[in-house]
Specification:
about 270 residues, alpha/beta, eight-stranded mixed sheet
């Protein structure tokens, strides 16, 4: 018998990298699926060891995952997805739910390599899913219905924000949030380096920079105010903040960040065409 709140089915992941780790950790923390009903495949033991230590089953056989699981996450590199789908195709039945988190790989590509009528969803997480503060968007294929969408949202309830969107938003999400965490890390590093330049120890500067970003993000989410309004609230006439913001404007910060999101989005779209 499953404990209260646990689902009866088994979940698998083909691929064992950081994204798979974050998503499956969130699923286990939510209490939806216990580790003993999770199976993960990868070609080597390099990443599988972490899953074994957590109590999950592991294998080097991709086919073993759909053979044992109703819900299968595809967490491999995008260029490997067609090969993986051809490999597991004979094992996929109408009862399976296939969920891809491969950047740029469209629903059309996924469905074309699987049996007609397969329930397919496409999702895009980001790295903070590893600490259950991620941002995830997903979209349904032709045969996936509300039941599958609700199931995925339930499984990911401890991973962070999870929203269903049109497929056209998924590549934008990749540029905004999937790649965006790297932009934030770069900004955090620059903030800390600025403090170090002015005489603060680097360890303390990094801690304060990270807490500053965390606090600012929470204020956006919890107040519902526009970032521009919150920024204005910090600026006093002739004060320190407006002087600093003037330097950011001279450096073209906003235009550069917008260009970065555009470039990452376009790259995700290009990956899909490949």
């Amino acid at each position: 018998m499953a404990a209260a709140g646990e689902a009866e089915f088994t979940v698998g992941s083909i691929g064992a990298g950081r994204m798979a780790q974050g998503v499956l950790e969130g699923i286990m923390l939510a209490g939806k699926i216990p580790a003993k009903r999770i199976i993960v495949s990868a070609p080597t033991d390099r990443n599988l060891t972490k899953f074994r230590e957590r109590g999950c089953h592991t294998t080097h056989s991709n086919v073993a995952v759909p053979s044992a699981c109703k819900v299968v996450f595809l967490a491999t590199k995008p260029h490997l997805i067609p090969k993986v789908l051809r490999e597991i195709n004979p094992s996929v039945t109408p009862d399976h739910v296939i969920i891809s988190m491969a950047a740029g790989v469209t629903l059309q590509t996924l469905e074309s390599h699987l049996p007609v009528g397969t329930k397919v969803l496409r999702m895009m997480p980001n790295l903070p899913c590893v600490v259950q503060e991620g941002a995830v968007v997903f979209t349904r294929g032709h045969s996936a219905g509300q039941e599958e969408a609700d199931m995925l949202k339930s499984l990911l309830s401890e991973c962070g924000l999870c929203e269903e969107t049109p497929e056209s938003y998924i590549d934008i999400h990749t540029g905004l949030s999937g790649s965006g965490v790297a932009y934030v890390y770069t900004f955090a590093e620059a903030l800390a380096d600025g403090a170090v330049k002015m005489g603060m120890p680097s360890v303390l500067a990094r801690q304060i920079a990270a807490q500053t970003l965390l606090g600012a993000a929470k204020m956006i989410l919890q107040t519902g105010n526009l970032p521009a309004q919150l920024r204005s609230d910090v600026c006093t006439p002739g004060g320190t903040t407006i002087y600093g913001l003037h330097e950011l404007e001279k450096g073209g910060l906003r235009a550069t960040v917008m260009n970065a999101v555009e470039a990452s989005t376009q790259r995700a779209r290009d990956l899909g065409k490949q």
